[in-house]
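batch job 7 of whatever, protein = ABC transporter ATP-binding protein
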Amino acid sequence: MGIEVEADGLTKSFGRHTVWRDVSLTLPAGEISVMLGPSGTGKTVFLKTLVGLVRPERGRVVINGVDIVSCRERQLYRTRRLMGVMFQDGALFGSMNLYDNIAFPLREHTRRNERQIRSIVEEKMAMVGLSGAESKLPGEISGGMRKRAGLARALVLDPEFILCDEPDSGLDPVRTAYLSQLLIDLNAQIDATILIVTHNIQMARTVPDNIGMLYRRQLVTFGPREVLLTSDEPVVAQFLNGRRSGPIGMSEEKDAAATAAEAMTEPDLDDVRGVVPQLTPTPGQPYRQAAARRQERVMRILHQLPPAAQQGILAGRHEVSHERTG
């Protein structure tokens, strides 16, 4: 099973600019979480902080019992071995074929021989649907294939915590749908904790167990997916519906007069808020153990959640039960 990741009181600034302050949340072990937020709100900085690439001014990041903010370099290195990162652009080496790109972490960080490396690389490439593409260069393949190659590379060290920085960036809606299903299937197979940073609302509505949102240097919310998907917060409603009218502007701040003027001129579009069914593993894949653990967890805190979120969770209980017995 994946590992629990706890962020406690994180504050990060660059010079006089505060990116976010006092961010606290817990990523439940083995579950899939999504972090949303307008551009420039520090989502990628938050991801880098969880990896230990960015050091906050205040707060802790506890992974597998180790606070990576204050630990020694050797402990940080060992803890990073538990992580796999899928970078936004794939971050593949252009002069290496896909096989060598994916094998790179194994050659750098383990003492496995080439026979063992080949077995692992072929297994991970098969998991992401890239069997037979080993000899291709990154410049010879599509953006979707590069994304999958980056994901395969993130998997070769068998991570317990996988971080995906805008995995849908540059992909068309169909390829994004395939990638969403792939993440669900991988979670069913390896039961790792997954954090996805994305702007894609369809992915955010259908993939995660939990959703958070960063806005105006704060964590607006983090919790079971049903809480954000049914939220009446103006910033949440605006972001989910992709509308101009609301507190989010072209620059992050917007005054009340601008908000009112935009509300008068914007077309009356359907509100997409509401809980839609979560994706389930492809037939033939294992049952996703995280779904059962999550159901038990949210039922314990059900009384603390808003009524609309409670209704969504209770309606979803049948879906989880059907998946488990199907």
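notes: The beta strands are 5-14, 17-27, 32-36, 58-63, 66-67, 83-86, 161-165, 193-197, 210-215, 218-224.
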